Amino acid sequence: MATVTLLADEELSPKAAAVFADIRATRGTDYVNNFWRALAHNPDRLEAVWSQLKQIMGPGALDPLVKEMIYIAVSASNACEYCCHSHTAAARAKGMSDAMYNELMDVIGMANQTNALVNALQVPVDDIFRAE
Amino acid sequence: MATVTLLADEELSPKAAAVFADIRATRGTDYVNNFWRALAHNPDRLEAVWSQLKQIMGPGALDPLVKEMIYIAVSASNACEYCCHSHTAAARAKGMSDAMYNELMDVIGMANQTNALVNALQVPVDDIFRAE
Amino acid sequence: MATVTLLADEELSPKAAAVFADIRATRGTDYVNNFWRALAHNPDRLEAVWSQLKQIMGPGALDPLVKEMIYIAVSASNACEYCCHSHTAAARAKGMSDAMYNELMDVIGMANQTNALVNALQVPVDDIFRAE
Amino acid sequence: MATVTLLADEELSPKAAAVFADIRATRGTDYVNNFWRALAHNPDRLEAVWSQLKQIMGPGALDPLVKEMIYIAVSASNACEYCCHSHTAAARAKGMSDAMYNELMDVIGMANQTNALVNALQVPVDDIFRAE
Amino acid sequence: MATVTLLADEELSPKAAAVFADIRATRGTDYVNNFWRALAHNPDRLEAVWSQLKQIMGPGALDPLVKEMIYIAVSASNACEYCCHSHTAAARAKGMSDAMYNELMDVIGMANQTNALVNALQVPVDDIFRAE
Amino acid sequence: MATVTLLADEELSPKAAAVFADIRATRGTDYVNNFWRALAHNPDRLEAVWSQLKQIMGPGALDPLVKEMIYIAVSASNACEYCCHSHTAAARAKGMSDAMYNELMDVIGMANQTNALVNALQVPVDDIFRAE
């Protein structure tokens, strides 16, 4: 269980209900996942997080699938169980193949390994890496 | 300064020197960055990490540039100063535009925000996100 | 299950039993939560952690409720499931309202977002922020 | 140095310049710190982060000083050098006394200690801590 | 459930099956734990991770039991539930006594506490700690 | 610079001065490192952290050198620059050889790699790993 109840549709404030309607319309499914049902206790934050997510994760200079894989990488590094599950499902829905997922795991493992090595060794940044 | 000295070319063991030669040949530059000079105290690990990195970060189901951006996302979440600098430089060298970098920052910020919210609220994973 | 058994009252060493008695007296409840039952395998550490917690989390320059909210913020950032649950319960018991909890979530989300942005961008510290 | 240049006032886009003007007006100082100068490469994100920060960190159910201390706690747990410095300066400007800062350090240290213990021991959450 | 299915023996590719055979032979048990069954979707990575683990965690300048305790310390700091469980079991199988485990918990708690304090206070590194 | 000044000997309160005297006597050196000079603003915490560190890091079921290496592993995983430097220096003073340090780096890298993989894949804990 969460630290708050997960609000059912009939428990939503009008503002939260409007956000849920937009989530459903945007995603083309009636299913609204638990994250939003927990956030719905704070309708202003629900609206802010959803509108931010909708804008950021949409098409742009980066492909939405690439964005989902970046999200998985952050979530794994932060040990966020829920986010690993939800964004892996989202990445698959956007076309992530098994081969892509395998390579994503490779990069996540490699990056966490070398991050720890570099932090342990406290390697100084090369001058050539710095922005002007 | 690192916790170890950064080995100059003339201080390398033969095994480490061979790895440095491969780094130079693979990257097409004479410059070998500090991470490898710190790792070179352990030639077996130097060789293992380099061969793993070379294989993982190369072309495959994911584009090398996408892999670099995933690396940046992990490094930012782990607060690895060196890795943020080195992989941002690498991503730019592989064609990351300012627009792409901006969107990468957006996703990294968003993911860290929602990871923390989900962890604070301890949102339970939806059944539909689970494999099987 | 934990990596150790959770000790029942009748399994406690005399030292651990004395700590449990103080926990009960201090909190005014017979309930002793699982954290202490796991720590009780190491009575010296149990006593040290409990006495430290009792002193630190009590009244002082900061209100005990403020301290509980700070504890939640740390626990969310560290992905500590148990601690998010136990300190959210403690904060509510000390008077945290829904409005306060909502704002706490806002700050936790915001801070994790900008921490990641700053780490990714490696923003140098302004001279005016430094002591002296 | 950051991974991007820190934009000077004369390098800002009109949108970024408007945000800087609001930062100055809101804070009552001409000084705009480095974080915003790094973010200014992405005027949309600059505006979004600033407006979010301004709203979240202002008065509400929690005191702005309490919010700054929560921010410090998150930043310390995430090893964000810049954020520790900037939010400690902000907390002091909002009235954080040395006694308050000392207690904040105590809680941050304590929470990180017990988070790690709980994670190592994998203590199961007590039923009484769960919502509902 | 994992984000992937856990492969049963009869679902393994020939390469993955060979790795499982080596795991069984090396460990002297028929039991292959879930981590390898999840990794087996990527036989190349399975082989690479297993061969790396087998080499690194074996005898050397450090005792294998010491290595397992270091592994637990990292896993607790990273909030990795699975790794805390699996490496605590491994350490016990290699002879970790209750007294050793208690002291390990003490060090893990202490290190996480002072890490957070140092990060919050941003203590500058003493010159005498730096390698030549 | 730290967020607080580093107190010189002549700025210490009597309580803090007594702790410094004990640090010097225990370590057999006149040098007191920056961490204690930052903590000295809070003499009660200085005394508590020092007495805890002195007790925990001393001889017991685990060798003091093993404890220092565990400390390094935690500090690397938490990206604590100061702690990586100070505890690497301490481990060397207690006899850590280059070969031992190399293997420590190997384990730290490996553990952070598999922690991230396990978190990404959300591998369920095997029943046989659980206590009882």
Describe this structure in words.
The structure is a homohexamer. Chain A is built from 6 helices and no strands. The first copy, chain A, starts with 13 loop residues before the first helix and ends in an 11-residue tail after the last helix. In chain A, about 65% of the residues lie in helices and about 0% in strands. The mean pLDDT of chain A is about 95. Chain A has 2 domains: about 1-55, AhpD-like, CATH 1.20.1290; about 60-120, AhpD-like. In chain A, helix 4 runs antiparallel to helix 5 (about 80-95) and helix 4 (about 65-75) packs across helix 6. The relative contact order of chain A is 0.08. The first copy, chain A, is mainly alpha-helical.
Question: Can you give keywords for this protein?
Answer:
homohexamer; 132 residues; mainly alpha; AhpD-like; 2 domains; 0% strand; AhpD-like (chains A, B, C, D, E, F); peroxiredoxin activity (chains A, B, C, D, E, F); AhpD_core (chains A, B, C, D, E, F); CMD-like (chains A, B, C, D, E, F)
